[in-house]
């Protein structure tokens, strides 16, 4: 499909630079089939049914944004995928100044050598020393805010908490599963009273989620792979929910992509551990999910293509036009939507 079919105009003042406070005070656009209504995240227990299950991503964002020097050259690195115990692929600013074998110094005695370069320009960095890389990143790294926020303000101490969900357990993401940023203890308690179940899986979100689609046609776009895991017990419980008439609602596109990667042709969710580069565009037949809770996404992005596949491109363009007109806040720190296909 032509990528320009997924374009729309977004005023820059609709981009949220801070989250709602409290988190669950965010607005939520409910889209059921072709019907839309303006709701709030706190309405979620009233909308969902007893027996439905929400599926959360328990990945934890690491401080994967690094600033350093290679000799006299300033170099910035955003880690996006682990490749072994001490090595990470990174998107590097000023990459032309870095050659294989060069050592980049990131401060606080944190150093890494450039090992090789991928065809997309990413550089494989091998971190020196014996301390766990996660500890080195805590010493030298910053939270990797999305470029549409980082270009407008600096990262600060508040982002350490704001850009982490309440479910974060497994370290390894370089971008937050932002749909779950809206959840709080009081919202979870209300969902429990309603009889809505919850499950977790792990997908370590990579910085590739923010990369623009440069191809003119979706068939020519290459997705970056991300590592994920669903254990057998969770898969069995999710299959039991659907068998009993409940709905599987993915909280975030990351949860959705892993569920769809783990499902077989009959729609049965299997255990899964490994990389996925699934690219969902209109025409895709969904097998594992019955709905999606997600924030509002970038024009011409793979994530807007995904929600268009779930609901229909005309429905989503109308929904986004409504959201813009009604002042919804967009992107990672923005408002939410609940998408329930007809």
TrEMBL record:
The gene is queA. It comes from the Bacteria. PANTHER family: S-ADENOSYLMETHIONINE:TRNA RIBOSYLTRANSFERASE-ISOMERASE. It comes from Sphingomonas cremea. GO terms for cellular component: cytoplasm. Belongs to the QueA family. This is S-adenosylmethionine:tRNA ribosyltransferase-isomerase. One of its GO terms (molecular function) is S-adenosylmethionine:tRNA ribosyltransferase-isomerase activity. Its EC number is 2.4.99.17. Its main location: cytoplasm. Monomer.
